Amino acid sequence: MFQKILIANRGEIACRVIDSCRRLGVATVAVFSDADRAARHVAMADEAVHIGGPAPADSYLKGDAIIAAARDTGAEAIHPGYGFLSENPDFVEAVEAAGLIFIGPSAKAIRAMGLKDAAKALMETAGVPVVPGYHGQDQHPDHLARMADQIGYPVLIKAVAGGGGKGMRLVEAGRDFADALDSARSEAKTAFGNPDVLIEKYIQQPRHIEVQVFGDGTRAVHLFERDCSLQRRHQKVIEEAPAPGMTPEVRKAMGAAAVRAAEAIGYAGAGTIEFIVDGSDGLREDGFWFMEMNTRLQVEHPVTEAITGVDLVEWQLRVASGEPLPARQEELSITGHAFEARLYAEDVPAGFLPATGRLAHLAFPDTARIETGVRQGDTISPWYDPMIAKVVTHGATRAIALSRLESALVDTEVAGSVTNLDFLIALTRHAEFRAGEVDTGLIGRDLDALIDAAAPDAGARALAVIGLAGLADPSVRGGMTLWQPLRRTIAWDGGEALLEVEGPGAARVTLDGTPHEVRWQGDRWWVDGALRRNRIVRHDAGTSVFGGRTVTLAPLDPLARAGEAAGDALTLSPMPGLVRSVHVKAGQAVKAGDRLAVLEAMKMEHALTAARDGVVAEVLAQAGDQVEAGAPLIRLEEDAEEAA
Ligand code: ADP
Ligand code: ADP
Ligand code: MG
């Protein structure tokens, strides 16, 4: 086993790797950017080395700086985590040339799976079923269109260099093909510097089922499957293991195909073979097809750990340090069921826009395994993946594990940024999901209902008013005696309510003209007669109500409001990204809500819209510009200018 390793990553995965190292007595070196000086992974590691500026290109993607840090600190090996340099074969070669060990597969194995078209061709030869389609060299649009006709619509266009759902377009009919091809190619060109695509039959009622494999460079075993069908725009939201409805026969067939795939490329370490599965009529031995291989530890690896009892990071370290595979296939088995939910700082009603903020309050229940890279007081910056935590639960059956996931999410508390927490809670209550009827279209079909079920309701807002007024503080709740009703206006950043205290444990809150009767006893709260599962928490950024339908009310800040009012003439970039397109010209009249520009960031495209009606005074950015968070993009004429 190694004495000391360096972790070339940040956030929850860096912390996750350090956890296993500690248990194994392996010393750890963290690396960090300017934005991460005070990050959790830096605090957890035995040593930490500063490697550059906040942009990934200036730090976490700087292979030479990372290798130098490893040599300077005497680390023997580098763990890449996921993302960043984890699937970069040139980095693997540089690590090895420096006399260090890369904890992962060989550069050759990564290259073999790096492009989806070549990987599919290779898998066909290895006898692994691949999705029917065209993955040849001829990229002429007419040829691709003919291939699409031949495959039969609907088809999926995929960037051969793709990842994270980018450069992918579903095409329902031939007349839409040319446009979809154009936009897929241009997205792929920007994201991966490679515009080439392949075309696949779009599998109906698709399920995403992937198999965890582990190799020693010659032989491989599999650690069963994970179902990652709960996706939004091809991005995983909740994952589980094993897959609902899996039969021993199909599991055996998928496991064998995955092991064949790994052995075909001499795979070493942890990897994942992703299959697309036809879920229209149960799972079948001839109803799954290879999509791609991820040659790294996967984000959702904890669900596999939960059902197998294996620590995959420990296995990675053992195999990389020269030990044999820790278990034979027949020694591996499944116990119970596990779920993982990805908790993100994102604005769900605004279209899941990545959010930022200082986590004024952060608390997790001890009933779940929590993988996180942040602590209370830390900031979710615009520079990196806005993940806050992964919440992982295990139980003897799927129903038990799922109800544990629901409770763990209800007991999770985040304030200081909007999150997808309540959306995740709504998902755990979704009838089809509860019944195990999953497919990749589930979230899309019920998106509006799920967003509605996650939105703050009047009851939660009334409780937040009580909290903001200080009535939920334990000292007040215990000893308060009031001789007469107390009537006052409670104002916060964005609204106000009338509060009438009616006596100890009783108040009326009038919100938007509707009165709500609030009663309380100890930690129990009733609104309009209904017992609420909410908790009221005061923190240094205001007051929050948790327990589903989270509400946070921030105290009034007159300065900030003045700034906002003056600032609505400027459309600023909400995060660092690439300006994809600009849709207005100087002098053009726009209405509130009109699309001004499209920004590509965090793997998604975001439409930036006009905050108010007006006339465009100045266009400050153009398509192709790389912009920082807060960069001005479009300026509208001030009202005075307009009148003149
Ligand atoms: P996995 O296949 O391991 O579940 P994903 O497919 O979700 O991971 O993501 C692929 C890669 O993109 C991962 O290596 C991860 O680091 C990175 N990634 C995931 N989500 C984001 C995000 N919101 N922004 C930037 N990168 C991300
Ligand atoms: P990425 O590299 O972006 O992860 P994948 O090839 O793994 O790309 O596909 C991502 C997701 O897109 C899958 O999880 C699945 O939901 C969907 N998908 C991919 N291929 C197909 C297909 N042929 N038919 C239906 N859905 C598909
Ligand atoms: Mg994938």
How many domain regions?
6
Bound molecules: adenosine-5'-diphosphate, magnesium ion
Kindly state the percentage of residues in helix. Answer: 25-40%
Give the DSSP E fraction (strand runs of 2 or more residues).
25-35%
Strand order in the largest sheet: 14-13-10-11-12-15-22-20
Give the number of helices: 20
Backbone CA Rg:
26 Å
Tell the overall outline.
globular
Q: Uncertain spans, ≥5 residues at pLDDT below 50?
A: 479-484, 559-566
The major sheet is characterized as:
8 strands, antiparallel
Tell me the span between the first and last alpha carbons: 75 Å
| Overall pLDDT level | 92
User: How many E strands?
Assistant: 40
Write the CATH homologous superfamily of the largest domain.
ATP-grasp fold, B domain
Name the CATH architecture of the largest domain: 2-Layer Sandwich
Q: What structural class do you assign from the helix and strand content?
A: alpha+beta
Task: Please name the CATH topology of the largest domain.
Answer: D-amino Acid Aminotransferase, Chain A, domain 1
- Name of the CATH first level of the largest domain: Alpha Beta
Report on this model:
With 644 residues, the chain is an alpha+beta fold. The protein folds into six domains: 4-103, Rossmann fold, CATH 3.40.50.20; 105-131 and 206-335, D-amino Acid Aminotransferase, Chain A, domain 1 (2-Layer Sandwich); 133-201, ATP-grasp fold, A domain (Dna Ligase, domain 1), CATH 3.30.1490.20; 336-455, D-amino Acid Aminotransferase, Chain A, domain 1 (2-Layer Sandwich); 458-553, no CATH class; 567-643, OB fold (Dihydrolipoamide Acetyltransferase, E2P) (Beta Barrel). The protein has 20 helices and 40 strands. Strands 14-13-10-11-12-15-22-20 form an eight-stranded antiparallel β-sheet, with helices on both faces. The protein starts with a strand and ends with a helix. The model is unreliable at 479-484 and 559-566 (pLDDT under 50). Bound molecules: adenosine-5'-diphosphate (2 copies) and magnesium ion. One adenosine-5'-diphosphate (ADP) binds at residues 131, 156, 158, 162-165, 200-203, 206, 208, 231, 234, 274, 276, 291-292, 440. Residues 559-637 form the Lipoyl-binding domain. Its cofactor is biotin. Keywords: ATP-binding, Biotin, Ligase, Nucleotide-binding. Residues 120-321 form the ATP-grasp domain. InterPro entries: ATP-grasp, BC-like_N, Biotin_BS, Biotin_carboxylase_complex, Biotin_carboxylation_dom, Biotin_COase_C, Biotin_lipoyl, CPAse_ATP-bd.
